[in-house]
Amino acid sequence: MHEGHRERMWERLYAYGDSMSDHELLEVLLFYAIPRKNTNPVAHELLAAFGSLRNLFSASPEEIEKVAGVGRKTADFIRLVGLFMARCGKAREEKTGLSSLADVQNFVRARFRDADRERAEIYFIDAHFRLLCAKTFTDFSRAQVAFDARDLNSLLGTVRPNAIILAHNHPSGDATPSSADDSAVREAAGVCRINAVNLLDSVIYGSEQEIFSYYCAGRLPECFSRGKTK
């Protein structure tokens, strides 16, 4: 029942999600809470009762449950989504700033101090030097970590950052870059240049006291001049 309509709504969401009305978005969201019922009239009832999505997702389950056609399970689901929305809004206000060397090194320390295996990460930065997201690129035990150019290219196209910072650790405690590290940074620099993304730094964590920065060492220009992609 209603499978054809739901499929059309999913297709509409994928193609025109940004332009869909509030009740259409709510209708699709309610698919998860109401699997075998037409959620369109329920969405209209909810918006009519609360006036806006903001009011709806701020309401208590008891208040939501009073709306015709909405049971406790649906009310709890809506409240849970509202809590996530509030948490995400707070997180946007508290975005990690990475505008200074101290900011970057402190962030890297927090990410790697408990790591017992070598791994690499990419930090995606917006135009205001705030962290958009952090991606663990590799996480395995071997002699070296390399950033794969194809994966990096795909990530840059998806996240669309203004800049990135590379980071990985040396469990040995020695933060001195290896020739493999140099090659990885050069390759990443080439991918960044193609995508018009700034490579701000590549940081190696050895210990709390041993952190190497390609930027501070003046080695980023060389990486860009020799950077190339596969």
Automatic annotation (TrEMBL):
Keyword annotations of the record: Hydrolase, Metalloprotease, Protease
Record domain RadC-like JAB: where: 99-214
Signal peptide: none
InterPro entries: RadC_JAB, RuvA_2-like, UPF0758, UPF0758_CS, UPF0758_N
Highest rank taxon of the organism: Bacteria
Domain UPF0758 stretches: 6-73
Pfam families, per database record: RadC, UPF0758_N
GO molecular function term, any single one: metallopeptidase activity
PANTHER family attached to this UniProt entry: DNA REPAIR PROTEIN RADC (PTHR30471), UPF0758 PROTEIN YEES-RELATED (PTHR30471:SF3)
Family to which this protein belongs: Belongs to the UPF0758 family.
The protein's name in its UniProt record: MPN domain-containing protein
Natural source organism: Candidatus Borkfalkia excrementavium
